[in-house]
Amino acid sequence: xxxxxxxxxxxxxLKRSQEEEALKLMGDAMRRRQDAYETLQAGRRHxxxxxxxxxxxxxxxxxxxxxxxxxxxxxxxxxxxKHYEETLQKMVAEEEKARGHYIFCxxxxxxxxxxxxxxxxxxxKEADRDIERxxxxxxxxxxxxxxxx
Length: 149
Hints:
Elements: H1 9-59, H2 64-148
Helix pairs in contact: 1-2
């Protein structure tokens, strides 16, 4: 009997490579999201430190120039934090899109793998039947030759 050959093997290899590429892209998206989250947290910590410094300075006497500088820095840091939040939201959306693409690619590869396994099982069953038929023919031919003698 012929050796088992899956006719869609090249397509399966392509789908597996697409799955691997999608996994890499998803990993990159997850890393970018984590970086955006950490940047946002650092910005919020800096803003909190500024507000604490203003509070402490107001307990003593703070001159107008320093207060104006602090308030400008607070406004700038609040704007930065807002920008960081928007960036984080974009990165989360990008990660979700990459995850969806990876799942799609993985399902395609799994479907082809499942088809390959089914065809291999059918091939093996057919090969087992052929061997069984050959054994039956051998046994029948031996019985026939024994009866003739």
